[in-house]
Amino acid sequence: LGIFTVFWMFGTIQFAELFPMIASKAGTGWEFLGHTWSAIDLAAFLLFVGAMGKSAQFFLHTWLPDAMEGPTPVSALIHAATMVTAGVYMVCLLSPIFEYAPVASGIVALVGAVTALFAATVGLAQNDIKRVIAYSTCSQLGYMFFAAGVGAYQAAMFHLFTHAFFKALLFLGAGSVIHGMHHEQDMRKMGGLWKLLPVTYAVMTIGTIAITGLGIPGVGGFAGFYSKDSIIESAFASFANGHSAMGLFAFMVGILAAGLTAYYSWRLVFMTFHNKPVWKDAHHDDHAHDDHASHAQLETHSEPIADDHAHDDHGHHGPLHPHESPWVMLVPLLLLSVGAVAAGFAFAPHFIGHGEHEFWRGAIFTGPENHVLHESHEVPTWVKWSPLVLTLIGTFAAFWLYVLKEGMARRMADRGGVVHGFLYNKWYFDELYDAVFVKGAKAIGDLFWKVGDVKIIDGLGPNGAAWASLKSAARLAKVQSGYVYHYAFVMLLGVAGFLAFAIYAWGA
Fold first, then answer.
1. How far is Cα 181 from Cα 189, in angstroms, rounded to an integer?
2. What single-letter DSSP state applies at residue 128?
3. Residue 379 domain-assigned (yes or no)
4. Of the listed ranges 208-212, 276-280, 343-347, 495-499, the one predicted with least confidence
5. If DSSP codes are grouped into helix, strand and coil, which group holds residue 29?
6. What is the pLDDT of residue 34?
């Protein structure tokens, strides 16, 4: 619909022909319900809705965690480089349209900020190692979208670039953990792996530092520090100079989500690599249970299960000896860790610094009143330090709950509670969509089936015709009584009627 609207307005969808024409159509609108609706805003909004589904933004995000059922390298590719980032790329590429669509841009910033906060809160309570990283992707995409919504397209693309390194690193690192744990993904069944998987632990720690944006303003940090802080500072700058009405909201959500990101990211590291090795106890309990079952089975003279039992020890009851992955899996992790460390300071001058004009060469368009990126370098000092403060708070909270007070967080989770249940169940979006869309569609289907198909189509069609034939035949059958005097009486009535007609006709 968005592409069709663009074609209807401009007669082309070729970028080279389209972009120079947009400014001349900036005032075009349609009258509807007593209000003039901007045609460019409408086109931009429709295009953004498509990007929301593509990049798993709020309300259209539920498919993303389910995509984690695929192989981990596929997850890394989807989240880091290809599919889910395509929506952000499209919005930035269409910056000439969004620059003249202030309402649509405000919606982009709003949805992106809400997504960043929503996904970060859900990630706090997940226990599947891949799902935590999946929701972190959703949250980071929210950062990219609200950066584009406030006019900082360069910062959005920079975060897309740096995010590819540390997100692929985290996913492949999670795959290495799963491989070493013999396909176990529940972090509650891990712990104490840092000595057994030292290389994986090191690269996962690097990826975690990168995604949390840990760094010192004016000094430097890992890749995420440069791109994420640029987004947060741009959001504040857009509010300060009046370019975007959503700037302040995006800024506040951005620093809050930074703290939540630090918490759930370090929670993953501490639950997986530190603390008590829970996998030992889990395996021992399962092994003891199997020994008891085997003994009972021998007493009942059933078939021997030695081979199956040996197989189950390896495949289903947790590994006795978690192991490091082979080098064919570790070398890509080491290469990605270089990007997670160095991609930020190496490319920041080109993406968002003094060399951005030469780097982009007009690929990203900003209007004459859009100075967000340049003014982001001049925000107050407290704005620059705010993300670091929230990141340190989130990091310390995770360290305190999962290392210093080991077991406290699990006991709190086991007690449940409204907040934990709300976050663990992903704000109940699955239940909401099941009640509204799945059951709603089933109710509509049942209505069409029971009323439209059974009562109308079948009732008036074949079933109705058969019923009418049956009833009419039953009534006509009553005329054939089998009594002679009935037939004689009918014949007399016929003769009398015929004579009456003949006399009437002869008299006329």
1. 9
2. B
3. yes
4. 276-280
5. strand
6. 66
DSSP annotation string for 323-391: -PPPHHHHHHHHHHHHHHHHHHHHHHHHHTSTTHHHHHTTSS---TT--HHHHHTTS-HHHHHHHHHHH
- Supply the range of the domain harboring residue 499: 478-508
Cα angle value 266/172/206 (rounded, 5°): 40
Within-domain flag for 429: no
And the tokens for 405?
């007070």
Tokens 């009833």 locate to 471
What three-state secondary structure class fits 38? Answer: strand
Amino acid at 346: A
Beta bridge partners of 111: none
pLDDT tens digits, one per residue of 176-232: 998 888 888 888 888 888 888 899 999 999 999 999 988 888 888 899 999 999 999
Q: Are residues 83 and 199 in the same domain?
A: yes
Q: Tens digits of per-residue pLDDT, 287-335? A: 444 444 444 443 333 334 333 333 344 444 444 587 788 888 899 999 9
Same domain flag for 381 and 489 = no
Q: How many domains does the chain have?
A: 2
Owner of token pair 């370019």: 243
| 366 and 501 together in one domain | no
Report pTM: 0.80
Please state, in angstroms and rounded to a whole number, the distance separating the CA atoms of residues 112 and 117.
Answer: 9
Sign of dihedral through CA atoms 9, 13, 15, 16?
negative
Residues β-bridged to residue 37: 30
Tell whether 47 and 184 lie within a shared domain.
yes
Contact 108, 48 (CB under 8 A): yes
**Residue that has been written with the tokens 């930020």 in this structure:** 344
d(CA 198, CA 330): 11
Asked if residue 461 belongs to a domain, the reply is no
**500 and 387 within one domain:** no
Share of the chain above pLDDT 70, in %: 91
pLDDT digits (tens, 9 = 90+) for 80-114: 777 788 899 999 999 999 999 889 999 999 999 99
* Averaged pLDDT for residues 19-39: 77
112 and 178: one domain?
Answer: yes
Same domain, 58 and 181: yes
Sign of CA dihedral 16, 20, 22, 25: negative
Highest mean pLDDT among 117-126, 348-357, 422-431, 474-483: 117-126
Q: For residues 279 and 277, give the distance between their C-alpha atoms in angstroms, rounded to a whole number.
A: 5
Alpha-carbon torsion (468, 474, 475, 477), positive or negative? positive
Surface-to-core class of residue 208, CB atoms within 10 Å of its CB (0-12 exposed, 13-18 middle, 19+ buried):
buried
Closest CA to 228 of 343, 93, 132: 343
Q: Take residue 358 and report the two structure tokens written for it.
A: 């030469």
68 and 189, same domain (yes or no):
yes
Q: What residue type is assigned to position 57 of the chain?
A: Q
Helices (DSSP H) in 425-461: which residue ranges? Answer: 429-433, 439-447, 459-460
